[in-house]
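Q: A reviewer asked whether we had any structural model of the full assembly, not just the individual parts. We don't, so I'm hoping you can provide one. Inputs are below.
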Amino acid sequence: MSDRRQRVPPAPVSDRVRAVDEALTEKQLVPEGFLDDTAARAEQELSPRNGAQVVARAWADPAYRARLLADGAAACAELGFHAGDEKYIVVLENTLTLHNVIVCTQCSCTAWSVLGLPPDWYKSPAYRARVVREPRALLREMGLDLPESVAIRVWDTSGETRYMVLPLRPAGTEGWGEEQLAALVTREAMIGVARVRIQKSRGEFPSVTQGGKDE
Amino acid sequence: MDGIHDLGGMGGFGAVEVERDEPVFHERWEARAFALNQLGIRVLKAYNIHEYRHSVERMDPGHYLEASYYERWFTGVATLLIEKGVLGHAALEARAGGRVPLSRPPALVQPSSVSAPEHARFAVGEVVMVRDIHPPGHTRVPRYVRGKRGVIIRVAPRFVFPDVAGHGLRAHREHTYHVEFQAQDLWGEAPGNEAVIVDLWESYLEVAS
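A: Here is a predicted structure for the entire assembly that you could use as a starting point for your response.
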């Protein structure tokens, strides 16, 4: 850090981004509407609601569950969620004795097609550093207190495999329809830092809460 | 490279805060930065996804830790657009009205020095050792498993070898393996029922002696 230049604060990041955007546009390198469309697709189509539908189907249909665990990408595509570049999706089944949790320690790779773009906490250095080293303590801090007897597998997304956790179906949901079940499933549960719970305070048809931690 | 991005197992970090009802993008510039990378890779074809990952890894470590996710994302994109000659740095700074920090230049990598045989050499259940390598360029073998012993639990398809592709070079494909490491083997003191699974390219592995 001996470079005096580095002590000058950078331009605000929004100005840096605008500068690249304008320069590329001036050079006519940006197809009309491309940037807006790309962002809109990310916001609308890459959603954890997709993964929630996959989980709900797997809970409701044992044959689908078997196909999902055998070939994640193909089973997600059955519901219309095509993985694009994510050619190889592996679904990790939680049981009463084994809990799975996902991370990408070197960047923030995620199965966008079913989990959506990853949330800030998943991308944070603290999560990436800690979850491989002290998963039980970190999950407890985040509100998921696993008994010592439950084994933990932490999956580091260091290659091209993309993972999704198939959480345990909560008790008391027998006979529920897939839509009702899907509404319970959070992105956090599909990453493995929360359980799926029936939200008692919201009545019979729980509303969707994303980003909520399991308390 | 043994960079700041390779955070697995590092100590000193605090709580992980989950934001309720988090939006996909918090500010519009984040959405723009996201889309500019898709433009660079898919439309301009100026670079590939592996080069993009490496450009973020090459950020100044202090800047890397301070920057938000999409500031890191943007810094990688801007660095590559300049390195590939699409944009000029000085003109960009003039337009931004201030400094535009970039990542440091990449190491010179010879494909022959990081390549390996292409066929799957390992099978499920086999015990393997992660090679204790420290490539100067892009790599996807985390430091915390190098020199460690693990068991193959799944053979994944062949994928482009990132240590070569990350430098814009024509890369071969090889299998990756899901290798399970017992937490005790990685960290010493750890419960016996915790494990970490890392997805590793064939070139990173050798037969355990």
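A: Points you may want to mention in the reply: Chain B has eight helices and five strands. Chain B touches chain A through 83 residues (CB under 8 Å).
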